[in-house]
Amino acid sequence: MANLTKKRKEVNTKVEVAKLYDIGDACKLIKQISTPKFDASVDLHVRLGIDPRKADQAIRGTVTLPHGTGKTKRVLVLCTPEKEAEAKAAGADHVGLDEFIAKIEGGWTDVDVIVAMPTVMAKLGKIGRILGPRGLMPNPKTGTVTMDIAGAVTEVKGGKIAFRVDKFGIIHASVGRVSFDPVKLKENADEFLHAIVKLKPSSAKGTYMKTISMASTMSPGIKIDPRSVR
Question: Which of 171, 190, 178, 165 shows the shortest CA–CA distance to 64?
């Protein structure tokens, strides 16, 4: 524990608490201050000047990161038998319907994304209370309720992520790993932030992007200057 404290103190000296960093500089610095021995996730936290209680300001969307997240997502496809071969060929990790609904009712949620055919959504009503809080409920807005099963699975496996604002007006997302080249990390971060900018509600007044911070697992946060987001 003493070593960890010493490491953390050393790391903390590299980050200027009051400074707003250029996004490119932040992507370089995050690699220097990451202390875990594993390949930690790099996350962005964006606080928006919106009221998430208003329906038109409850922002949610998807974006395909050009270099992926560094993590292969586990995908469950809920579909009827005629779509199973298509789902498997696209790389889905689990494919089926009633047996997986039963497993989820029993508490199983060992997947990252669920893709479903529109015609099976009625069956998912009884597991909504399990999937909803975990962010796993398929939704047409995120492209996870579709007849194009192969396309949806391919996009998720290729780096497509879904995001939504929380009740505090903050959006959180992983944009890569510490092992990523800083240029690739910046390109992922830019793509994610641009997606948020495009979703700015017309009813939102004042500053839209209030604060942006970048952090990896167990690292201090780096404050990013919103003006460096082009």
Answer: 190
Give the Å distances, CA to CA, from 84 to 90, 108, 139: 10, 20, 20
pLDDT in tens, the chain (230 residues): 445 566 656 666 778 888 999 999 999 999 988 878 888 999 999 999 999 999 999 998 989 999 988 888 899 999 999 999 999 999 999 999 999 999 999 999 999 999 999 999 999 999 999 999 898 999 998 899 999 999 999 999 988 888 999 999 999 999 999 999 999 999 999 999 999 999 999 988 889 999 999 999 878 899 999 988 76
As a whole number of angstroms, the distance between CA 24 and CA 175 comes to 14
- pTM of the predicted protein model: 0.76
- Could you tell me how far CA 198 lies from the centroid of its own chain? 17
SS3 43: strand
